[in-house]
Design a protein that fits this description.
- By secondary structure, the protein is of the alpha/beta class.
- It has ten helices and eleven strands.
- A hairpin with a 6-residue loop joins strand 1 and strand 2.
């Protein structure tokens, strides 16, 4: 898939995953996560597809806004922890082979990136949202970070969460692992706008139009300047922890649908 100099209005955008629905219209690239049978959980090909969308929005002169949303009443519940994946022969020819996750690409993308949180937003879904420029959520949306039940130290979440909600709220979200509603998310600064469910699509369209009305190059310069202050993710934390006894127990407990018994040696 090579870059093209211009895009056609109403164009369907192939992101390399059957579970991502991409479309372009009026300077907006929309990406909808569509894997409802698995509650929109993300396989590696889906994460890479979102990364491709961010790269395209960064390179394509006609794209001012990238909107990321989900299908039905789920935004995204995180990575597919059961090991399911979708075979994708195009993964061997990545647009950027240095990183299989989309998080830094969303932040470095010159277009504005909006998370339209249409429902459940857990774990890796929260990671996606945290790396967008801002978020709008349905009133019925729910949020949760259950990573520590899996024995997984999520450095992407740990690095960004405190920037959005403050250190105390970040620790409560990650350590207590309790679900909370959209109104509380907005009070903490995690979400910038909450709207009634039946007004959600119109609210997203209004925000997109407002953002797209701004000068694109100036907006990109401001975004770059603001995001330059963000800390870099220390992925070595995860690398040092991957498949240690805690993570093996956490993953096994998740797959077996039981409470984990943490090793204490």
């Amino acid at each position: 898939m090579a870059y093209r100099p211009r895009m056609n209005n109403g164009e369907v955008v192939d992101l390399g995953s059957p579970c991502l629905v991409g479309s372009y219209s009026d300077h907006v690239l929309r990406v909808r996560i569509d894997r409802v049978d698995r509650r929109n959980s993300m396989t590696q090909d889906m994460y890479r597809g979102v990364k491709r969308a961010a790269i395209l929005a960064d390179k394509e002169i006609d794209i001012d806004v990238l909107v990321l949303t989900g299908t039905d009443d789920v935004f995204c519940v995180g990575g597919d922890m059961a090991g399911n994946s979708i075979d994708d022969s195009t993964l061997a020819a990545e647009w950027d082979p240095t990183d299989h996750f989309p998080f830094r690409h969303l932040e470095r993308c010159s277009a504005a990136v909006i998370a339209a949180v249409n429902g459940l937003c857990y774990a890796g879904g929260l990671d996606l949202m945290l790396h967008c420029d801002f978020s709008v959520a349905k009133a019925s949306a729910r949020f949760r970070a259950p990573e520590l039940l899996r024995g997984a130290p999520d450095v992407f979440m740990a690095t960004r969460l405190a920037d959005w909600v403050g250190l105390g709220n970040a620790k409560w979200i990650m350590f207590a692992m309790e679900a909370f509603d959209a109104e509380r998310a907005m009070q903490m600064g995690l979400v910038q706008e909450v709207v009634p469910d039946d007004e959600f699509d119109a609210a997203v369209d209004r925000l997109v139009a407002s953002v797209a009305a701004g000068a694109p190059r100036s907006r990109a310069v401001i975004k770059d300047d603001m995001n330059r202050q963000l800390r870099q993710h220390d992925t070595r934390v995860f690398q040092r922890s991957i498949m240690n006894p805690e993570m093996r127990e956490g993953m096994s407990a998740f797959v077996e649908k039981r409470d984990p018994t943490w090793p204490r040696e």
